[in-house]
Amino acid sequence: MSFTTILFIVFVVIVSLQLIYYLIYLFSFSLQRSETKLKKHIPLSVIICAKNEEENLKRNLPYILEQDYSNFEIVLVNDSSSDDTLEVMERFEANNKNVKIVDVKSNEAFWGNKKYALTLGIKASSNDFLVFTDADCKPNSNNWLAQISSKFSNQKAIVLGYGAYAKKKYSILNALIRFETIITALQYFSYAKLGLPYMGVGRNMAYRKELFFNNNGFNGHMSIKSGDDDLFINEVANANNTDICFSKESFTISEPKKTFKDWILQKRRHVSTASFYKTKHKILLGLFYASQLLFWVFAITLIVLGYKMQWVLAIIALRFMIQLLCFGLTAKKLDDANLIFFAPFLELFLVSTQLSIFIANLISTPKHWK
Description:
Layout: H1 3-30, E1 44-50, H2 54-65, E2 72-79, H3 85-95, E3 99-104, H4 114-124, E4 129-134, E5 137-139, H5 144-149, E6 158-160, E7 163-165, H6 172-193, E8 205-208, H7 209-214, H8 230-236, E9 242-244, E10 252-254, H9 260-272, H10 279-305, H11 309-333, H12 343-363
Parallel strand pairs: 1-2, 1-4, 2-3, 6-9, 7-10
Antiparallel strand pairs: 4-8, 5-10, 6-8
Helix pairs in contact: 1-6, 1-10, 1-11, 2-3, 6-12, 9-12, 10-12
């Protein structure tokens, strides 16, 4: 058996693995319709942890205060900011009875650790149902809180939402960020629907305070600077206590990073937490990402070698057809359908970037959340 034949056989196995992932795992969310049953407004505490976010708070807090929801408070956590974040918070508190402030001073034992500040904010909250977002996020509608809270029930103590990024024209970086965000949401929504929830995003998620303290909060990973959202969810979420919310009214919208350097640093922090996931999640996610990388490596190699071109191109076409169908349905559901045409190119760019991030994190790990 020749070397090129072996490459071709391995390529077929890799593509088969990809198709299994898409057909068994990822299509579970792509084909799902959004359903929301609005209920009586349960008391909510919206928790926003901010570090040097004075401008974002001025811009986005009014959208949260204007929510069409009868019973909620906003807990603003100032995480040792060096700008005028605290002063901005105090102005909002003075003008709104449902705003309270938690001013976190520098603590040598927890310096640079968002989890410490968040824990103090959770302790200060008045309600059992907590909704989390960031200072640079704004709700996509005045029904954001109503949509998210509708997913809580006697059994469901965790709600995973979608945190989109604002669209910028003529920006490759912006398209890449949005593409990666959709792929990530496709995965964590799909796995949650299949009873294997493994992460959420702090830009838009909710859980009960009782769940937080019954599981000792962030204590199991307090020493890890990142992961206040995904590591906690990975630790406590299961098939029975987790639901997803992805109606357009339930989205939050964030301003994306403006430079590749800032985005790479952000992704390095996020990727550094994946090694602390449960083993089953690491295996499933690791196989998927590895198969993505190997697909491109073997596809390009076989095309360059000119080996069985008709078969190779047919297999590549089949894989892209399934991928684009799955991604297209998801992108349309998440209100970003104009990325569909560029998906193959963005995937190649993203896979290459993820490989460089993985190598960089082997050398050194980011130390602080900001």
